[in-house]
Design brief:
It is built from eight helices and ten strands. It has helices spanning about 50-55, 95-105, 110-120, 140-150, 170-185, 195-200, 220-225, 230-235; strands at about 10-20, 20-30, 40, 65-70, 70-75, 80-85, 155-160, 185-190, 205-210, 210-220. The N and C termini lie far apart (about 45 Å).
Length: about 240
């Protein structure tokens, strides 16, 4: 992996996003720093987590406010990658999916096979290069989607509930990959409904509710001494309405 590019920090300055007259994000101000640990987004369904990730990727423009990447407006997403909750597998082998992603990222043809092998090994799919991607298990498909995202050699990797609907073994494998890519200097920002996962992985936590950022801070402080009623209720397993 190359050294981190000028994608970071990602700064949201009073960002509001409205779609079909519905406010999805409401005056969000935050910093996604070039830290060595993942930033984890938590909050109930409809809180705005997916929209925030898409905005951080540059896929959605703010209705009001400003987003910058390394101090730049409208920066091209050359060193950003996003993994959605239900990634689509191409009608190719596992290796073919990764080689396609490498080609899209501009990797020279003579380097794609070796690089695809490295990425498949990183996510624990070595030996499955020729397996049709759509015949992989759910956990294996998520690993393959991660390998494709990493083909962009990102400085910023955005993950939208990457372990939703996976069994404990597959969840553990995905968490290990998150730790591995973090150790390589990639900034991971991920959403999850799993508070245990947030405790295991997060360096810092952002709690969203009704499109607003209601609390943020280091994970250790957030879980030990939540400051807001919403955070205390969410950690206690109560419904936020």
């Amino acid at each position: 992996m190359r050294a981190p590019a000028a994608e970071l920090p990602v700064i949201f300055s009073d960002v509001t996003i409205v779609a079909a007259d519905v406010t999805i994000l409401d005056r969000i101000s935050l910093v996604l720093p070039a830290s060595s640990a993942p930033t984890v987004l938590i909050g109930p369904n409809g809180a705005g987590k997916t929209t925030l990730l898409r905005a951080a990727m540059g896929l959605i423009a703010p209705t009001r406010g400003r987003i910058t990447w390394g101090g730049r407006d409208a920066a091209p997403p050359d060193r950003r990658a996003i993994l959605f909750q239900r990634p689509v597998m191409l009608r190719r082998s596992a290796g073919g999916n990764v080689r396609y992603a490498l080609a899209a990222a501009g990797v020279p043809r003579n380097r794609r096979a070796a690089r695809a092998g490295e990425l498949l090994a990183l996510v624990g799919l070595d030996g499955l290069e020729r397996r049709p991607a759509r015949r992989l298990s759910g956990g294996e498909q998520q690993k393959l989607a991660l390998a494709r995202a990493l083909a962009r050699d990102p400085a910023l990797l955005l993950l939208d509930e990457p372990t939703a609907s996976l069994d404990p073994a597959a969840t553990n494998a995905i968490e290990d990959i998150v730790r591995a890519v973090t150790a390589r200097g990639i900034k991971v920002v991920m959403s999850t409904h799993d508070l245990g996962q947030a405790k295991r992985l997060a360096g810092d936590v952002l709690l969203l509710h009704r499109g607003r950022l209601v609390e943020s801070g280091p994970a250790s402080e957030f879980f030990a001494k939540p400051r807001t009623v919403q955070a205390r209720s969410f950690i206690a397993g109560e419904l936020l309405v």
